[in-house]
Amino acid sequence: MRGGELVEALKMRALPEGSNDYLALLEFLKLYRDAVQVAIDRLWSLSEIPSIKTLHMMFYSELRNRGFRAHHVKQIYTYAKTVVKAGKRNSGKKPVLRKLTARVDRYDYKLDLENRTLTLKIHNNEEVILKLLTSIDRIEKYKEWSNYEIAVKVVEDEVYVSVYFRRTVKSRKTRTVMAIDVNFDNVTLAVFTHSGRILRLKRFETPLRKILTHRIWIERIQRRHSRSWRFARGVREAIKKHGDRMRNIEWDYTHKIGDRIAEIANEHHSTIVLENLDKLKNNVNRSSNFNKKLSLWFYRKIQFTISYEALERRLDVKLVNPMKTSSTCPRCGSRLEDSGGRVLGCSRCGFTGDRDVIACINLFYRYSRCGGPGVPLNASKGDADPRPMQRKRDEAMKPSDINLYKS
Ligand SMILES: [Zn+2]
Fold first, then answer.
1. pLDDT tens across 325-336, in order?
2. Alpha carbon of 335 to ligand 1 centroid (Å)
3. How far is the CA of 210 from the centre of ligand 1 (A)?
C-alpha cells in the first residue's frame, strides 16, 4: 500500500448542557456497562469466542429490547469480546467492569467542531448534548480529518470525551531510500540514491545502557530486600523512582528520534526501509535474556514513532527481512568475519566496513530487490570500490567520502 492512515485521539473534558443531559448520560453509561458485563459473563463460559455473526445473533434482539440502538449493540459485543480475550490471556479470572465508559461509533453521535458541541444518541432514542471544553487551537488541526468513534466516560462526576480522528495520507514520490539499522547501542541510517550511492550517514546512540542501569538498580534493591520490598514504603518508592526514570528516558528518546529521522528523510525525499521485526520475534521470545527483550521492545517503539512521523510527512515506510543483514558481505554474499571494533571483513572478496553501515547497505539491497525501483540484481558486484569503508569507525561514518557503489 502506498501511504497509510493516521489516527489520533483528542481527549477533553465535557460539560453536559443541562442536568437532564447529565443524568441521562449517567444512566446510559450504567446500562451500557451492565450490558457489556452480561455479554462477558456469557462469553466467558464458552470454550471459544464465537464469530461476529454469531455474536450478533446472540445479543442483537435482546439488547435492542433493552433500548439500545443497532450500533450500540455492535459496540457492546465487540467490546465484551476484547475484554474476554484479554482476560483469558492474562489472569484467567473473569473480568468485572467498574468504570463508566462507552465507545460510540459515528452513526450514534453528531460532532460540531465549530461550536464544540457533541450530540450523543443514547438508549430509548434519547439524545444528550455535551459542550466540549477545549480550545479552538486544539481543534483547528482536526478540521480536515474525519472522525469515526468517540469514547465517553464519567469519573468522579466529571465527563470526559475522546474523539478518534483519522486522515488518509497519500504518499508522495520519493527520490532516495533511507535504510535504518537499530541495534543495542546505535541507530544508524544511510540515505541511498536508487543506484546505490550513499548520500548521507548518521548514527545516534541509543539510551539502552542507561535504561539497563536503572533496571539493574531495581533488581539490586529487590534482592537486598527480598522479603520486604513489596511492603516497605521507602523501598517501593526507590523502585518507583528508577521505573519512572526508565520510562522518561524511553519516552523522550523515542519521540525525539522519530522526529529527527523523519526530518532527514523529508529533506532527502526518502522512502524509509526498516527491519521487519516479526522475523526476529520468535528467537527473542524463546530467549530469557532480558537485554534482548528490552531491545526488541525498544526497536518496536522507535519504529512506531519513525513510521508515524514519516506518514505525517507523506513518506512511505517499507519493511524487509533483516536476517543476517549484519553478517553478510554486501558485495559477494559470503559470511563476514569480525575484524575488531565494529569492523567486519570478508575473507573471500576483501570487503571491509562498519557493521552498522553494512547492515544498512544490506537492508537497502533487500528492499531494492523486492520491488524497489532502480537497482538490478547484480548491482552489488562489479567495479564497486569498498576502500572508503576501510578506515576507522568514525571516519567511515563521514558521508562525504563514501561512494561505495558507482552509479
Ligand atoms: Zn565479500
1. 889 999 999 999
2. 8
3. 36
